[in-house]
Design brief:
The chain contains four helices and five strands; from the N terminus they run H-H-H-E-H-E-E-E-E. The protein is of the alpha+beta class and about 170 residues long. The protein has two domains: about 45 residues; about 120 residues, Nuclear Transport Factor 2, Chain: A (Roll), CATH 3.10.450.50. The protein has a five-stranded mixed β-sheet, with helices on one face. The chain is globular, with a radius of gyration of 27 Å. The termini are far apart.
Length: about 170
């Protein structure tokens, strides 16, 4: 009987120690996750930061220099432009496209914007914009998606899709 009692008591104490240690380890792991998530969230860009990237891109258009516009794109970016059927995948192609597009003296204005912050280095801006082509006075309404990545401390466009609205308003 004594032997059985010792085993039961020893087993109960061992379970309490293991369970208690496990509970503390679990609590510590949970706290570490919350701390890491909080630190990660602190470093995420604001929606205003991402919205300003379009303003900077639009200002690059206003220079009339396709090289300045191409500087906004990562070297491995993909551009699906509004007024071209050709997919552009390198700097030379970006410069070529914007060389022709800038002849129309475009200026964009966002009508609707939906910004998603994916993590501290990645964000998506999707919506509708209107380009006024000063050379002709024509307005072109288009849907857009910009995917931005923070690379070497600078926000770069890694994917830009722009397509004219399929239905007239």
């Amino acid at each position: 009987m004594r032997r059985t009692a010792r085993i039961v008591v020893t087993g109960a104490v061992g379970a309490a120690l293991v369970g208690g240690t496990g509970a503390y380890a679990w609590a510590d792991a949970g706290e570490a996750k919350r701390s890491k998530a909080a630190a990660s969230n602190e470093r995420k860009p604001t929606k205003e930061t991402i919205a300003n990237l379009f303003t900077e891109w639009n200002a690059a258009l206003a220079t009339g220099d396709p090289e300045v516009v191409a500087d906004r794109y990562a070297n491995d970016a993909v551009l699906l432009p509004t007024v071209s059927n050709q997919v552009r995948t390198n700097r030379a192609q970006f410069v070529d496209y914007f060389g022709h597009f800038l002849e129309k003296k475009p200026q964009g204005e966002i009508k609707q914007s939906y910004i998603s912050i994916l993590d501290r280095n990645t964000a998506v801006d999707t919506g509708v914009y209107v380009f006024t082509l000063a050379a002709t006075g024509q307005q072109v309404e288009a849907r857009y998606t910009y995917v931005y990545e923070l690379r070497d401390g600078k926000w770069m466009i890694v994917n830009h899709h722009s397509s004219a609205m399929p239905e007239s308003s």
